[in-house]
Amino acid sequence: MPKILIIEDEAPIRRVLNKILSEESDTYLVQEAEDGLQGVELVKNEDFDLILCDIKMPKMDGVEVLEAIKKIKPEIPMVMISGHGDLETAVNTMRLGAFDYISKPPDLNRLLNTVRNALDRKQLVVENKILKKKVSKNYEMIGESEAISHIKGMIEKVAQTDARVLITGPNGTGKELVAHQLHENSNRSSNPIIEVNCAAIPSELIESELFGHVKGAFTSAVKDRAGKFEAAHGGTIFLDEIGDMSLPAQAKVLRALQENLIQRVGADKDIKVDVRVIAATNKDLKKEIEEGRFREDLYHRLAVILIKVPALNDRRDDIPMLIEHFAAKISEEQGNAKKTFSKAAIKLLQEYDWTGNIRELRNVVERLIILGNNEISESDVNLFASK
Fold this sequence. Notes:
The chain has 387 residues and is of the alpha/beta class. The protein has three domains: 3-135, 3-Layer(aba) Sandwich (Rossmann fold), CATH 3.40.50; 163-308, P-loop containing nucleotide triphosphate hydrolases (Rossmann fold), CATH 3.40.50.300; 313-384, Helicase, Ruva Protein, domain 3 (Orthogonal Bundle). Helices cover 47% and strands 15% of the residues. The chain is globular and about 75 Å long.
């Protein structure tokens, strides 16, 4: 049931607003506060889905109330109530975070539409938070080994900065998890993280993919198109497998890092971007530099912070936790009861040579859950997990 707070010093206006809302829907729970101080105190102690707040009030005016509530519970949409002389102030409150404003005396349809839209917005914010938590869980780093604890410590120190990070390690070790953790724990987390797999894009298309193009830049460019750097504005761009990027594209990425400027393919106009760059590779970039396949100046721009993700064979103590995590997740995805692994089965899996790293381990766990008994035994491992 949506809970709405009316903060208004004029009792007749409060009664009108309460009557309109009560007659509109019997599912609205409406509370009143006769001044700003009382309203702020109510918000501190109770949860509301929407606040209607007058601008001209004694003790504490509407602008002060808006600023105070945005510090306490910024997710609550606030609709400001303005007299004719308050319109300029009402518009300014929008810049301070108000959802909208309505004029006195309140127009019935305008008020109800604003209330519905504000409540829809609040619901959307809640759903986005839930979705974000689910997405964040998908990128959780599992393990307590010394190597993983070290990486978690680095993420904690580095995430809040805009420092560029180069993540290295073999295929399947979870380099993308590190990138997502860096983004989710940063000040940019409310903006997108855009992933680009440099190895999956043909060299002749990588520049268009990263920086966009203008109509007519090449045969198939039938309209203007923004690139990944523009899409990541205000957020993070994750350049996975950057060791596979062509030298011409590397030169353009270098310029973007140096000047925060990009240029669409076929255009001569610069576009300013605010993007944090995180890169990853399974290659030895220093060797690539020696052999002329990677720019040394780009390497030094990217590798402000270096994070090396270890192979699974170098963190075998984490395998029991990873098995438990994957077993629970896979069972949930398949809608089946969770299967357990015997100690002997886990010990045997710890002894395997995991050349495919965590990705391979997850595949093996899924295979064992599908084909094995309710408790996965050593014999199940021998039978179904053969490499």
